[in-house]
Amino acid sequence: MMGESSISSDMIRGHLDAIILRVLSEGDNYGYEIIKAIAKNSDGQYELKEPSLYTSLKRLEAQKLISSYWGDETQGGRRKYYRLTGEGAEAYEKALAAWKVARALIDQLMERQE
Amino acid sequence: MDKIQQHVDRLFRPYKGSKQAQELKQEILSNLQARVADMTMSGVSREAAISSAIANIPSIAHLLDEKPRVFLYRFWVEWVQRVLLFTLIAWIVTMPFRFVGNGTGSNTLLMFIALGIGIVYGGLLLLKRYDRKTGGMNVQAALRLRKIGWLLWVLLMGVSLFYTTALHFGSNLWFSRPIHISGPYQFANVAIDYLKPFVTLLIPLALHMVPKLLMKYEVGEEDGCTE
Amino acid sequence: MAARNKVIVALAMVGVLLLVYIHCVLIPNKLERERRYELEQQSPLTHDVSTILPYKSQYMGDASNLTNLYAHLPLNGVKRTFQLYPDDLTLEINYLEKAADVGEEQVSSALLYNSIAAFALIDNLQTIRYRFPDAIYQLTRGDMNQLLHVDLAADLLEQQTWKKEVQGRIKEWTKESSRFWQ
């Protein structure tokens, strides 16, 4: 449905945690809506698979960067919502800053200078 | 949403009883439902939406903790208790062997095993202060062990039945002579020779209970954790 | 959990009771029965004829059949060797104990009984000779028919007939059979 080359998918995987933290920094959310938000943020270029989402969420929760609570839906299955913790917000800012430094450095290293 | 429910039920069937798995199941189910609802809203047919949602989660094995935290003391107490119960039943069921004579050894062995397990069980009950002790236990490994246990047992049974048959009736079958059992005593002997190996059923049964009990005593989110 | 503990205690008690019952009642009874049965097999009056039926044969030449037959008859506790004379259709049994030591009266009736059984079961057996270190006891099928006033044949071996016709009269025949001692 949405295009996704394996190369970009591999490169993104290393930053999945930060990408999810970004979504949650904009408000509490549950699994499918997180996937949707990421697809929207990528203009439909990247779709996160559900198993990868659960693995990331679990890791983030174990690191206490996010916390979870159950929603009170009356119909259908119960939704599990995730919330950014204070540590999570800090970790997100750090990851973003680190990425910016790395991106500049990699640009510098990879782009041929005329 | 029946098809989704079915798919999720099937994914989680081996983990029935695990709290961790139940929570993950709820979460996965609600997300799949949200996906299908969203896709049908944007014009995809229900059928297509459901099969695409299902294709998203083909398996969950790697999503579950290999070693969930388990209330160790409670787990061991109930496991030992159940094994003790089964051993006692086996001991009583094989008691008539003593009367025939053949199989007295097996029955005595069962009695000593039951006695040993009983002592271990009594000892465990005295260690009540460890009631809230938890530790990581490998449920996947327990599931594998259970499978291996049954497999080996079936194999062993096959060999043993073949051996007993060869011993008693081998020459009759080889020379296609009619089988002749000369009286109730010999019949009892042959029957006991066939039944004796089934005593080993205790081993796969004991293994069989491990994963179920591990999941039963898994530490849930609402339980406080103590090391 | 607690309910299962009660079941465990109950099962353990049932097990112990069963064990005691088997070892203190059932097994001693069985041994006593077997002992009494063994004892009965030593006396012509109470011997169980059904144990010798499998050794029915037309010919006396089968040595293992004869040894097995005598292993299921009175006097089977006395050590013995077998000798066959097929040309004379004669069976000779050498007992290693003195007849006097075993008991003359008991030996006489047992030998008579055993011989009736052997002649009834083995069709072409004509003479049996029992050798003791201190005596010889010999009789033929003819002697036997004469003494019993019946033809020895397999139909005598039917349980009721045997009890009435053979075991019921063995005592009186024994009295008349002293002439077979040599």
From TrEMBL, chain A:
Entry keyword Zinc-finger: no
Keyword DNA-binding applies: yes
Alphabetically ordered keywords of this record: DNA-binding
Gene3D superfamilies, A to Z: Winged helix-like DNA-binding domain superfamily/Winged helix DNA-binding domain
Classification via InterPro entries: Metal_resp_DNA-bind_regulator, Tscrpt_reg_PadR_N, WH-like_DNA-bd_sf, WH_DNA-bd_sf
GO molecular function, one term: DNA binding
Protein's UniProt name: DNA-binding transcriptional regulator, PadR family
Stored SUPFAM superfamilies: Winged helix' DNA-binding domain
Species whose genome carries this gene: Brevibacillus centrosporus
Residue span, Transcription regulator PadR N-terminal domain: 20-93
Pfam families with a match to the protein in the record: PadR
UniProtKB/TrEMBL annotation, chain B:
Chain ranges passing through the membrane: 79-97, 109-127, 148-167, 187-207
Keywords on record: Membrane, Transmembrane, Transmembrane helix
Matching InterPro entries: Perm_prefix_1
NCBIfam families xref list: perm_prefix_1
Protein name (record): Uncharacterized protein
Organism: Brevibacillus centrosporus
